[in-house]
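Ribosomal L7Ae/L30e/S12e/Gadd45 family protein
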Amino acid sequence: MALNRLKNANRVIGIKQVTKSINKDVVESVFLGNDADARVIVPLKNLCEAKNILFSEEYTMAELGEACKIEVGAAAVAILK
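Tokens:
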């Protein structure tokens, strides 16, 4: 999945917000930071798999944060439907 999709997409940022959005069935796809702590990412990956949501782990937290125009890294970002 291309990182440039995040720049102008309707999105949510952060583990908690992404998890809430997945549970509300409003998520199209998820980006996970490949350098994020596994203990917070693994449950989110499992949730994505259970809900058949595409997810990508090809970018770092810093790259995800930059794409979302925030000054910190993002462990998870979801593009909303």
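The first strand starts at residue 11 and ends at 13.
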